Amino acid sequence: MNACASLMMEQFPDIIFGYGFDNEYSFVFQEKTELYQRDERLIISSCSSCFTSFYMMKWKEYFPSKELVQPPHFQVEVSCYPEPRIVCDYLSRRQSECHNRNQYTTCFWMLVKSGEGENKAKEILKVFFLSSFRSSFITYSN
């Protein structure tokens, strides 16, 4: 997906920043972009089709022995934020979410590796990570 994001930034020079984790990517366009006269439907259509095409083009490069058995599809949305501070807040939330998910996954697999079953590991982590997620969202709700 990172290779696709790089190609997106080449294809759309108005993209100034891309951030991805898990199965999601966020792209930030220049504040004054006039891409498709800022028509959200056209931006969504063009970006989703390009990203999907790049993903299919790059598949064999990254998974040479794995057949692509069904066409990929991606959910796309456009959000227009009125000022850069709000964009930074959004990206901070995404980064916090990524950090929490990575922490959870690391702890989960360490518990499983140490002999806990997957269900038991989930129960153990539920206590710790529910409070962590709540505080992360409270932090950014101001």
TrEMBL record:
The keyword ATP-binding does not apply. Keywords: GTP-binding, Magnesium, Metal-binding, Nucleotide-binding, Nucleotidyltransferase, Transferase, tRNA processing. InterPro entries: Thg1_C_dom (IPR025845), tRNAHis_GuaTrfase_cat (IPR024956), tRNAHis_GuaTrfase_Thg1 (IPR007537), tRNAHis_GuaTrfase_Thg1_sf (IPR038469). Its EC number is 2.7.7.79. Residues 1-82 form the tRNAHis guanylyltransferase catalytic domain. GO terms for molecular function: GTP binding; magnesium ion binding; tRNA guanylyltransferase activity. Its cofactor is Mg(2+). PANTHER family: TRNA(HIS) GUANYLYLTRANSFERASE-RELATED (PTHR12729). Belongs to the tRNA(His) guanylyltransferase family. This is tRNA(His) guanylyltransferase.
